[in-house]
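W.,

You were right to be curious about this one. When I first looked at the sequence I had no strong expectations either way, so I just let the prediction run and decided to look at it fresh. Below is the sequence, 292 residues in total, followed by the output.
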Amino acid sequence: MGRIDSRDKRRRGRASLCGVALGLFAVLGCLGPAHGGDDDDDESSSAGPKQPNIYLDYNTAYAIVPPNTLAIGFRNFISPIPVGSQSVMLNAPLTVDLTERFSLYGGISAITSRSDISPWSSMIVDSWNIGFNADVIQQDSKTVTVISTLTRSINSAPGLGSTSNQTVVELDYGLNEDQTKGLLAGTRVTAVWVDSALAKVEPAFVGYLGGYYQWPNNWKLSGRFGIQNFGGAQIFGGLIRAKAFTQPTMRIDLERMDDNDNRLFGATVEVSWMPEPLVQFTLRTPLYAVRN
């Protein structure tokens, strides 16, 4: 994400390998994860459910994008325009929890949008995505989770088709035995590769701290607060430039879980300043075919 500045100096391209490197770390971690406790605990933590959870992790997101902002996110990247815009995005990845610690997912996304000078467009399928969620380390009250998503655009402006990777590495430090309250620390890397040589987008990095609390009725509240650094972008050979920036970001999640920590409902508010705020509201309503 970047604020447009036509006077920004040309930045040298950097290899966008951070997301791939973190994804490789996740795969290696899954092959040989660290455990704590005795052998019985190891067997219990590595054993998956008799049947994997299978569900559509359906979510609806509404985003408000300020003028002259390059929006880089989970599905695609939105080209900067000199007016504010809004969008509604639907995503329904088919998710399979192979074990209690490892999930695979993949699906398609659709979008409709409007700007201050144009009405709402027709809903179109704009991208597909695949990814995984893995608890690569579980030791006592500490869990390290890696979430990596690869996204490919389907309908983009000529020369602006893109492939992106977003990878999150998060440490969960439980403060009680049943881990209903705890602290969070993590990082998120988003890298975008544009098909055209006339467009180059540098990676965006986020580092954050936070915490969570889950009530006895299984409602769970989480908060993450951090700093985002974006390296800038050049589009159409530098005709349009997105200025590099470092700005705060925040995310609040309210979730309803069942007794086995399966999500039944989720609502998320994310705000990223760049420097004007980009706001996104997301509702998650998983549709289970199999739920343990």
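Here's what jumped out at me. The chain has a mean pLDDT of 82. And, maybe more interesting for your project: The longest strand covers residues 124-139.

Coffee later to discuss?

I.
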